[in-house]
């Protein structure tokens, strides 16, 4: 076995380790049977990953500020007490501006396709065309304002 090259970046673990553990933690925090503070032992089967990977992911998620955890005297994560707003968005519990923009575009297409008259169809089609012309960046800014109740200023 050769030693890892210290000049090479580390392998990405977000999608394979950290995100599945984050989703498991947030799901368990959101479920009453765990008292809204699941133990690490409940996260292991919920994530589908082996315990050493869950421990590594938990430490990474805590240090990144996605979750808050209780630790024992040795500093090992024992229980999770909360998740940040960003963690809830990443896990899918809360909407993202990009996701809501996509849902709006889909709804406009469906409404145009199911319109009862040509006039109604033309109106929905014009709305869909105008929304598509706005583009995903500005569309996400609009949805951010709708979701969060504020209008971000353009730079």
Descriptive key words:
155 residues, mainly alpha, Arc Repressor Mutant, subunit A, 2 domains, two-stranded antiparallel sheet, 7 helices, elongated
- As laid out across the biggest beta sheet, the strand order is 1-2
Fourth CATH level, the homologous superfamily of the largest domain: Winged helix-like DNA-binding domain superfamily/Winged helix DNA-binding domain
Question: Based on helices, strands and strand pairing, what is the structural class?
Answer: mainly alpha
The Cα radius of gyration reads: 22 Å
Helix content: 55-70%
Number of H/I helices = 7
Main sheet, how many strands, which sense, barrel?
Answer: 2 strands, antiparallel
Mean pLDDT: 89
Order of helices and strands: HHHEEHHHH
Give the second-level CATH assignment, the architecture of the largest domain: Orthogonal Bundle
Tell me the β content: 5-15%
């Amino acid at each position: 076995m050769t030693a890892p090259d210290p000049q090479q970046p580390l392998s990405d673990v977000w999608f394979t380790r950290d995100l599945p553990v984050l989703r498991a933690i947030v799901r368990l925090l959101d479920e009453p049977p765990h008292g809204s503070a699941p133990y690490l032992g409940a996260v292991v089967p919920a994530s589908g990953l082996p315990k050493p990977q869950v421990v590594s992911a938990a430490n990474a998620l805590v240090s990144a500020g996605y979750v808050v955890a209780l630790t024992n005297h040795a500093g090992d994560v024992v229980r999770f007490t909360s998740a940040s707003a960003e963690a809830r968005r990443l896990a899918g519990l809360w909407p993202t501006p990009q996701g809501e923009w996509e849902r709006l575009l889909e709804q406009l297409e469906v409404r145009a396709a199911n319109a009862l008259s040509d006039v109604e169809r033309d109106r929905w089609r014009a709305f869909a065309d105008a929304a598509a012309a706005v583009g995903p960046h500005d569309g996400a800014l609009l949805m951010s304002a709708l979701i969060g109740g504020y209008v971000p200023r353009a730079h």
